[in-house]
Amino acid sequence: MASGALAAAEARSFTVWGDIPEGCRNVPLVAGIDEAGRGSVIGDMIYGIAFWPADADAEISRLGFQDSKTLTPEARDKLFEGLKATGRIGWVIRRVSAEEISAKMLLRSAVSLNAMAFDAALGLAKGLVSEGLMLSKLIVDTVGDPERYRRFLHDGLDGRVDVVVEKKADATYPVVSAASIAAKCSRDASVKADALKARCLEQAVDIRSGAGSGYPSDPVCKAWMREVMHPVFGWPSVARFSWANAKDMLDTDAIAVDFGEDTEEAPGDYAGGSAAAAPARISTFFTPSAAGGSGASVRKPCSSLAGLGSAAATSVF
């Protein structure tokens, strides 16, 4: 993939900061990180970080934060609104776009989803430090090997932060649960908005229903993908084309395209061929032809060669 295309895909990812409470400044902080949407085929992967004063950890932990996956959407939304209203809890989310995920995973030298997750988590933690906040302890729900992840974060933070990486940390540490809620609520809202926008702009169909949870196992998501899929171009950019089920749907239901591979010509391949088959010499562009003129080949619009007529009269939709 061209570097320009990859840069454009990366530019679709962004970070959103909540307000930084005054009580979180100039004091040691404990922070938690979790993600939402890692395994989905539709929409962004969202990483969230929540933080509060370390000396208030026990008190704030009693507010009732728990793993977002165990909560109803209504309960999650209520806790997220409560989190933002306390004036004592800070939060930040990082949206890793579906475009960036697809672009990097489909590179010849593919970038794994784990590597993108590591970078997102480290970026959030370093963002707190760059804001002058005193991050003293970071607790993260693991992706892949916990010790490898811990070393990556520890070294990336110059060894100045106590880093804990564990499986199911979102169910064990309330600060990670708070991060999970921030990430999940943001993810749910973004999937609905992105799916509706994609349908409106690219298909011009009824936009009252979206892509469900965005996960491959969700029947609503499967139905949305079948309905929206273009037979040549697939889906809008909210889909992760690198996912196995997306590839399977394209292989099964889309129009097969054979790009063909040019073979290198061996020296002398044209020696016995006709004059028409041989490539034109550059000198012919500067030598007058018998009929007058420069002798250069006459170029025609590609649409006329293909029998398509005016390009302005054609459309892919």
Automatic annotation (TrEMBL):
Keyword Metal-binding applies: yes
Cofactor(s) listed: Mg(2+); Mn(2+)
GO molecular function, one term: metal ion binding
Domain (RNase H type-2) ranges: 28-255
Cofactor binding note: Manganese or magnesium. Binds 1 divalent metal ion per monomer in the absence of substrate. May bind a second metal ion after substrate binding.
Keywords of the record: Endonuclease, Hydrolase, Metal-binding, Nuclease
One family name in Pfam for this protein: RNase_HII
Positions annotated to bind a divalent metal cation: 34-35, 141
GO terms under cellular component: ribonuclease H2 complex
NCBIfam families: ribonuclease HII
Function: Endonuclease that specifically degrades the RNA of RNA-DNA hybrids.
Family: Belongs to the RNase HII family. Eukaryotic subfamily.
Protein name: Ribonuclease
Organism field: Cafeteria roenbergensis
